[in-house]
Specification:
Immunoglobulin-like; 2 helices; three-stranded antiparallel β-sheet; six-stranded mixed β-sheet; mainly beta; 206 residues
Length: 206
């Protein structure tokens, strides 16, 4: 308690003031800046604080420049086919996908078409992507705009497309293969051509 009072006294005294201590009539130690007959001077060690000579010389940290913003497109969507479209292209499974964007494609940017989450064709600045030999069933299409470093600038949501392919067997039943069709029509492979029977009854008799 006495030590705490002593510290408070030191904080309240002017800088470089002398401090004296003595024992009062009740046996308590008293600290004061006024000398008395029986008071003894307290030797105070010098502080080790550092003086700041020129506060103005300390510079504030330079502001951090904001990160460069990516260019923006107001619109990117798959124009053809429409969402949830059903494509009936015989047995070929062909599909032409057309994209559109607003604004038009910026310099250094390319379109990318995704089929079932995988890149379906090479990057292109053309918005038209022809696809061939797609399996029958439902597929998911999505489109992206990427820059020269491969960063994705814009992306469309995935949309389903349904591919209906007529089997070769169905086409063969609808239009049976004739003699001259084998090797010509896809549903009439040359290997399925029946062998011709030799009829010796029509040969002349010698």
């Amino acid at each position: 308690m006495r030590f705490a009072l002593f510290c408070l006294l030191l904080l309240g005294l002017p800088a470089m003031a002398d401090v004296y201590t003595y024992i009062d009539s009740e046996g308590n130690r008293v600290f004061t800046d006024q000398p008395r007959g029986n008071a003894k001077k307290v030797e105070i060690a010098p502080t080790n604080g550092m003086n700041q000579k020129n506060p103005a010389a300390v510079r504030a940290p330079a502001p951090v420049a904001p990160a460069a913003e990516l260019p923006a497109y107001d619109l990117l969507r798959i124009l053809v086919p429409e969402p949830d479209a059903t494509i009936r292209e015989g047995s070929s499974g062909d599909l032409i996908v057309t994209l559109t964007s607003d604004p038009v494609l910026m310099p250094g940017h390319s379109y990318r078409l995704l089929l079932d989450g995988k890149e379906a064709a090479a990057l292109s600045r053309s918005p038209v992507f022809p696809l061939t030999n797609l399996d029958r069933g439902t597929h998911q299409l999505a489109a992206e705009i990427v820059d020269a470093t491969g960063r994705i600038i814009e992306r469309t949501p995935s949309q389903p497309v349904h591919i209906v392919r007529t089997s070769l067997e169905s086409k063969r039943r609808a239009n049976p293969c004739k003699k001259d069709d084998y090797g010509v029509r896809p549903e009439c492979p040359i290997g399925d051509k029946p062998e011709e029977d030799d009829d010796i009854s029509i040969l002349p008799f010698f």
